[in-house]
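User: Thanks for the earlier help. One more: TetR family transcriptional regulator. Can you show the sequence and predicted structure together?

Assistant: Of course, both are below.
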Amino acid sequence: MDDETRLAQPEVTMTSSGTSHGTSPGAVRPGGRTARVREAVRAATLAELAEKGFDGLTVEGVALRSGVHKTTVYRRWGSVEGLAADALDLASGEPWPVPDTGGAEGDLRELARLVVTGFTDPETGPVSAAFISAAVRNPPTARALHAFFAARHEQSAVIVERAVARGEMPAGTDAAEVVRTCVAPLYYRLFITGEPVGEAVADRAAAAALAAARAGVFVSG
Protein backbone atom coordinates (compact mmCIF):
# COMPACT_ATOMS: atom_id res chain seq x y z
CA MET A 1 0.00 0.00 0.00
CA ASP A 2 1.53 3.34 -1.00
CA ASP A 3 1.62 6.45 1.22
CA GLU A 4 -1.26 8.13 -0.58
CA THR A 5 -3.56 5.16 -0.14
CA ARG A 6 -2.39 4.51 3.41
CA LEU A 7 -3.08 8.09 4.43
CA ALA A 8 -6.50 7.93 2.87
CA GLN A 9 -7.68 5.02 5.03
CA PRO A 10 -9.90 6.41 7.81
CA GLU A 11 -9.01 4.96 11.19
CA VAL A 12 -11.76 4.13 13.66
CA THR A 13 -12.10 3.86 17.41
CA MET A 14 -13.68 0.85 19.08
CA THR A 15 -16.20 0.91 21.87
CA SER A 16 -16.27 -1.73 24.57
CA SER A 17 -19.01 -3.50 22.64
CA GLY A 18 -16.81 -3.71 19.57
CA THR A 19 -18.78 -1.22 17.50
CA SER A 20 -16.62 1.01 15.34
CA HIS A 21 -17.10 4.74 14.97
CA GLY A 22 -15.33 6.95 12.43
CA THR A 23 -13.34 9.87 13.72
CA SER A 24 -13.83 13.44 12.54
CA PRO A 25 -12.80 14.25 8.96
CA GLY A 26 -9.05 14.20 8.54
CA ALA A 27 -8.36 13.02 12.08
CA VAL A 28 -6.57 9.74 11.46
CA ARG A 29 -3.53 9.84 13.72
CA PRO A 30 -2.36 12.54 16.12
CA GLY A 31 1.20 12.85 14.81
CA GLY A 32 3.67 12.14 12.02
CA ARG A 33 2.90 12.38 8.34
CA THR A 34 -0.85 12.32 8.85
CA ALA A 35 -0.71 15.33 11.17
CA ARG A 36 1.38 17.23 8.63
CA VAL A 37 -1.10 16.40 5.86
CA ARG A 38 -4.01 17.48 8.04
CA GLU A 39 -2.34 20.77 8.92
CA ALA A 40 -1.43 21.44 5.28
CA VAL A 41 -5.03 20.84 4.24
CA ARG A 42 -6.33 23.01 7.08
CA ALA A 43 -4.00 25.87 6.08
CA ALA A 44 -5.09 25.55 2.47
CA THR A 45 -8.76 25.49 3.50
CA LEU A 46 -8.37 28.71 5.48
CA ALA A 47 -6.51 30.39 2.63
CA GLU A 48 -9.18 29.38 0.12
CA LEU A 49 -11.94 30.62 2.44
CA ALA A 50 -10.15 33.94 2.87
CA GLU A 51 -9.85 34.44 -0.87
CA LYS A 52 -13.10 32.93 -2.16
CA GLY A 53 -15.53 32.49 0.73
CA PHE A 54 -17.42 29.28 1.45
CA ASP A 55 -19.23 29.34 -1.89
CA GLY A 56 -15.86 29.36 -3.69
CA LEU A 57 -14.32 26.61 -1.57
CA THR A 58 -13.62 23.43 -3.56
CA VAL A 59 -11.83 20.18 -2.82
CA GLU A 60 -9.79 20.67 -5.97
CA GLY A 61 -8.69 24.13 -4.89
CA VAL A 62 -7.64 22.91 -1.45
CA ALA A 63 -5.79 19.94 -2.94
CA LEU A 64 -3.90 22.15 -5.35
CA ARG A 65 -2.96 24.71 -2.72
CA SER A 66 -1.97 22.13 -0.09
CA GLY A 67 -0.05 19.83 -2.42
CA VAL A 68 -2.12 16.87 -1.20
CA HIS A 69 -3.61 14.67 -3.92
CA LYS A 70 -7.32 15.38 -4.38
CA THR A 71 -8.10 11.67 -4.03
CA THR A 72 -6.73 11.78 -0.51
CA VAL A 73 -8.66 14.93 0.28
CA TYR A 74 -11.90 13.39 -1.00
CA ARG A 75 -11.38 10.15 0.88
CA ARG A 76 -10.40 11.73 4.18
CA TRP A 77 -12.55 14.86 4.22
CA GLY A 78 -15.30 13.90 1.79
CA SER A 79 -16.45 17.37 0.80
CA VAL A 80 -15.99 21.08 1.37
CA GLU A 81 -18.25 20.72 4.40
CA GLY A 82 -15.84 18.17 5.85
CA LEU A 83 -12.91 20.49 5.18
CA ALA A 84 -14.58 23.41 6.94
CA ALA A 85 -15.69 21.28 9.88
CA ASP A 86 -12.21 19.83 10.38
CA ALA A 87 -10.60 23.26 10.24
CA LEU A 88 -12.96 24.38 13.01
CA ASP A 89 -12.30 21.19 14.95
CA LEU A 90 -8.57 21.88 14.91
CA ALA A 91 -9.11 25.51 15.89
CA SER A 92 -11.31 24.60 18.86
CA GLY A 93 -8.43 22.69 20.43
CA GLU A 94 -5.96 25.53 20.13
CA PRO A 95 -5.27 27.97 23.01
CA TRP A 96 -6.92 31.36 22.84
CA PRO A 97 -5.29 34.54 24.22
CA VAL A 98 -7.81 35.08 27.02
CA PRO A 99 -7.24 38.57 28.45
CA ASP A 100 -5.83 39.00 31.96
CA THR A 101 -5.78 42.72 32.74
CA GLY A 102 -6.17 42.36 36.49
CA GLY A 103 -9.87 43.23 36.57
CA ALA A 104 -13.17 42.03 35.14
CA GLU A 105 -13.86 45.34 33.40
CA GLY A 106 -10.61 45.24 31.45
CA ASP A 107 -10.87 41.52 30.74
CA LEU A 108 -14.36 41.75 29.25
CA ARG A 109 -13.47 44.86 27.29
CA GLU A 110 -10.42 43.15 25.76
CA LEU A 111 -12.45 40.01 25.06
CA ALA A 112 -15.03 42.03 23.13
CA ARG A 113 -12.29 43.83 21.22
CA LEU A 114 -10.75 40.47 20.28
CA VAL A 115 -14.03 39.47 18.66
CA VAL A 116 -14.22 42.74 16.74
CA THR A 117 -10.63 42.35 15.56
CA GLY A 118 -11.28 38.77 14.49
CA PHE A 119 -13.97 39.91 12.08
CA THR A 120 -12.53 43.21 10.91
CA ASP A 121 -8.93 42.13 10.37
CA PRO A 122 -8.20 41.91 6.61
CA GLU A 123 -6.68 38.43 6.97
CA THR A 124 -8.80 36.71 9.61
CA GLY A 125 -12.07 38.54 8.99
CA PRO A 126 -13.06 36.89 5.69
CA VAL A 127 -12.35 33.42 7.12
CA SER A 128 -14.40 34.05 10.27
CA ALA A 129 -17.27 35.44 8.23
CA ALA A 130 -17.12 32.46 5.85
CA PHE A 131 -17.51 30.02 8.73
CA ILE A 132 -20.54 31.88 10.07
CA SER A 133 -22.09 32.00 6.60
CA ALA A 134 -21.46 28.31 6.03
CA ALA A 135 -22.91 27.32 9.41
CA VAL A 136 -26.21 29.01 8.59
CA ARG A 137 -26.68 26.73 5.58
CA ASN A 138 -24.71 23.62 6.39
CA PRO A 139 -25.46 21.34 9.39
CA PRO A 140 -21.98 19.72 9.68
CA THR A 141 -20.31 23.12 9.70
CA ALA A 142 -22.91 24.38 12.17
CA ARG A 143 -22.15 21.51 14.55
CA ALA A 144 -18.43 22.18 14.27
CA LEU A 145 -18.98 25.89 14.88
CA HIS A 146 -21.08 25.16 17.96
CA ALA A 147 -18.29 22.98 19.33
CA PHE A 148 -15.78 25.73 18.54
CA PHE A 149 -17.77 28.30 20.50
CA ALA A 150 -18.26 25.86 23.38
CA ALA A 151 -14.49 25.51 23.59
CA ARG A 152 -14.06 29.28 23.53
CA HIS A 153 -16.63 29.70 26.31
CA GLU A 154 -14.80 27.11 28.38
CA GLN A 155 -11.47 28.86 27.87
CA SER A 156 -12.99 32.26 28.67
CA ALA A 157 -14.59 31.02 31.89
CA VAL A 158 -11.43 31.95 33.77
CA ILE A 159 -12.34 35.63 33.35
CA VAL A 160 -15.45 35.12 35.46
CA GLU A 161 -13.71 32.75 37.89
CA ARG A 162 -11.09 35.41 38.60
CA ALA A 163 -13.77 38.08 38.95
CA VAL A 164 -15.69 35.99 41.48
CA ALA A 165 -12.50 35.33 43.44
CA ARG A 166 -11.81 39.09 43.55
CA GLY A 167 -15.36 39.85 44.66
CA GLU A 168 -16.24 41.64 41.42
CA MET A 169 -19.09 39.24 40.64
CA PRO A 170 -21.26 37.15 42.95
CA ALA A 171 -20.56 33.48 43.55
CA GLY A 172 -22.44 31.17 41.21
CA THR A 173 -22.20 33.50 38.21
CA ASP A 174 -22.60 31.55 34.97
CA ALA A 175 -19.38 32.23 33.08
CA ALA A 176 -20.70 31.20 29.67
CA GLU A 177 -23.69 33.54 29.99
CA VAL A 178 -21.44 36.46 30.85
CA VAL A 179 -19.30 35.78 27.79
CA ARG A 180 -22.35 35.37 25.53
CA THR A 181 -23.84 38.63 26.74
CA CYS A 182 -20.53 40.39 26.20
CA VAL A 183 -20.13 39.35 22.57
CA ALA A 184 -23.72 38.87 21.38
CA PRO A 185 -24.29 42.54 20.47
CA LEU A 186 -21.21 42.40 18.26
CA TYR A 187 -22.46 39.39 16.29
CA TYR A 188 -25.87 41.04 15.97
CA ARG A 189 -24.31 44.08 14.30
CA LEU A 190 -21.92 42.04 12.19
CA PHE A 191 -24.37 39.49 10.82
CA ILE A 192 -27.92 40.77 11.34
CA THR A 193 -28.07 44.53 10.97
CA GLY A 194 -24.77 45.15 9.21
CA GLU A 195 -24.07 48.13 11.46
CA PRO A 196 -20.47 49.18 11.99
CA VAL A 197 -18.52 47.76 14.90
CA GLY A 198 -15.43 49.13 16.58
CA GLU A 199 -13.82 49.54 19.95
CA ALA A 200 -16.53 51.85 21.23
CA VAL A 201 -19.23 49.29 20.47
CA ALA A 202 -17.11 46.53 21.98
CA ASP A 203 -16.51 48.53 25.14
CA ARG A 204 -20.22 49.28 25.54
CA ALA A 205 -21.14 45.61 25.16
CA ALA A 206 -18.54 44.63 27.75
CA ALA A 207 -19.78 47.27 30.18
CA ALA A 208 -23.36 46.03 29.84
CA ALA A 209 -22.32 42.43 30.48
CA LEU A 210 -20.30 43.47 33.53
CA ALA A 211 -23.16 45.52 34.98
CA ALA A 212 -25.55 42.61 34.57
CA ALA A 213 -23.07 40.18 36.12
CA ARG A 214 -22.47 42.43 39.11
CA ALA A 215 -26.23 42.71 39.61
CA GLY A 216 -26.49 38.92 39.88
CA VAL A 217 -28.40 38.44 36.62
CA PHE A 218 -26.26 35.42 35.67
CA VAL A 219 -26.23 33.64 39.03
CA SER A 220 -27.40 30.09 38.49
CA GLY A 221 -30.68 29.34 40.21
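User: Great, one quick takeaway?

Assistant: The chain has two domains: 3-87, 104-214.
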